[in-house]
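Researcher: We're teaching a course module on how sequence relates to structure. For the next exercise, students receive a sequence and then see the predicted structure as tokens, so they can try to spot secondary structure elements on their own. Here is the exercise chain.
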Amino acid sequence: MSQKSWEQRVTAFVLEAAEGLREIAQPVGNDSIKVQIGRAARRAGLSYWRAFDLWYRKARRVQAAEIEAIRAARATRTRERSHELACLAADVEALAERVSRLSAGSAGADAAALRTLAGRSRRLADGE
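Model: And here is the predicted structure for the students to work with:
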């Protein structure tokens, strides 16, 4: 195996790890990068400094266990997002029902808009 192909493969793993950590960091508000790296490290089961090196693509190697941990954390985060969207859709549907019950005539368009929003949220939660 040539040196170049080996380096390209390592670089691809480092890029995947960096992108995965950024995704599972789930930035909230004005979180600093330090806080985001710490959150991603905890979710992936890595030390802060290892996550730091991966985040900034300074790592010279990536172990298979690290990639798998990051992939598992990404999958967990994706499931959490789908669940959050499904809950949001249920809440919007309940709100649409209340709006339609409170003012049967004048709020029909509002209730229909809320139901449309709930439908979009459900489709997003299902991955469509």
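Model: If you want an answer key for the exercise: The chain has a mean pLDDT of 84. The radius of gyration is 21 Å.
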